[in-house]
Amino acid sequence: MSLPTTTRQWYYSQLGSFDNLVIQEVPVGSPKANEVLVKIHAVSLQFRDLMIASGAYPGSMPPNLVPCSDGAGEIIAVGSDVAEWKAGDRVCANFSIDKVHNDAPNNLALGGAVHGMLTQYRTLPANSLVRIPEHFSYEEGATLPCAGLTAYNALLSGYEPVKAGDTVLVQGTGGVSIFALQFAVASGATVIVISSNDEKLKVATKLGAKHIINYKTTPNWAEEAQKLTNGRGVDRVIEVAGTLEPSFAAIRRGGSIDIIGAVGTNYSTPFNIIRPSITKQVNIRGIYTGSVVQFNNMNRLIAANAETTRPVIDKVFAFEEAKAAFAHLKSQAHVGKVVIKV
């Protein structure tokens, strides 16, 4: 099989809006000794991609940035020193390509610090790759690196993993939240989901949420969560909305609040709000995706719960419709993931 010499990719002519995305054709290099060349079949979008597009995401980025951290594809060539992978293997790259264990020395996050996955072909370090679950399509596999792994890390990789009998409150019905719902249910926990949309809450119920709260009609959702737990409070909150004060009100003494990346930190937090972290002895853990090792562990959980941990894909767009996919994500009309087929 002859290798491609060029690839079509989307890049930012300048940051400020996803309307500044432009398609270009560029050369494809051969993989180095420790790299593989992947034909990308699908890419999924994150809220982070919108923040980067707008220029609101922290950190330095290369010029003419190729967006998107999450993609899935097929290996078509391997470098001379690569023994663990072969042509034809179906893979994802980890969100941070240098985070193999629990370290990321240079924080090389795709679609941010380094060019991302919204391209037809991409060379990647061999040790950054994870095999896609056998029963997943490429579109489903593309949802895992950020949303899936972030939810898994929050619930199952800390010092106190979620367990049967726990009550978990999940905010929203986006990518991370839907995976958190599914992983919590697979672990035997009772799940409360909050959202402003009744139709989205119906989806959450179908996926296993025992309780649902519409925070538009029930603004004091923390009080409602306390009632649902007979005044004890929930064991864990997946905090994605920047609503730390009611999360503290909903949590039990000694419970855990998992703050999801830049998504869950959209607030200023005076001391009177975080005081309950002391008085209620609440554990607060910041979550920033995960490692290759955690990714493989997550895939074992998915394989063991094949029917109940299937990704929820809201809509699939063609490669040429990338801007429309970003617009759909921005509209917040989706439940689960927005995917671009490459």
Can you offer a commentary on this structure?
The structure is a single chain. This protein has about 350 residues and is α/β, with parallel strands linked by helices. Helix content is about 25%, strand content about 25%. It is built from eleven helices and 15 strands. The two termini are about 20 Å apart. The model has no long low-confidence stretch (mean pLDDT about 95).
Structural class: alpha/beta
Please indicate the percent range of residues in DSSP E strands (runs of 2 or more).
25-35%
Order of helices and strands: EEEHEEEEHHEHEHEHEHEHHEHEHE
**Uncertain spans, ≥5 residues at pLDDT below 50?**
none
In whole angstroms, the N-to-C terminal distance is 20 Å
Tell me roughly what share of residues is in helical segments.
Answer: 25-40%
Mean pLDDT: 94
What's the number of extended β-strand segments? Answer: 15
Instruction: Indicate the radius of gyration in whole angstroms.
Output: 20 Å
Major sheet size, sense and barrel closure: 7 strands, mixed
* Broad shape: globular
Summarize the structure.
By secondary structure, the protein is an alpha/beta fold. It is 27% helix and 27% strand. Helix 3 crosses helix 4 and helix 6 packs parallel to helix 7.
Key descriptive features of the protein:
Zinc_ADH-like; 11 helices; about 350 residues; 15 strands; alpha/beta; ADH-like_C
Show the helix and strand layout.
Layout: E1 6-12, E2 21-27, E3 35-44, H1 47-54, E4 70-78, E5 90-93, E6 121-125, E7 129-131, H2 138-141, H3 144-156, E8 167-171, H4 175-186, E9 190-195, H5 198-206, E10 211-214, H6 221-228, E11 234-239, H7 244-250, E12 251-260, H8 271-274, H9 276-279, E13 283-287, H10 292-304, E14 313-318, H11 322-331, E15 337-341
Parallel strand pairs: 8-9, 8-11, 9-10, 11-12, 12-13, 14-15
Antiparallel strand pairs: 1-2, 3-4, 3-6, 3-15, 4-5, 5-7
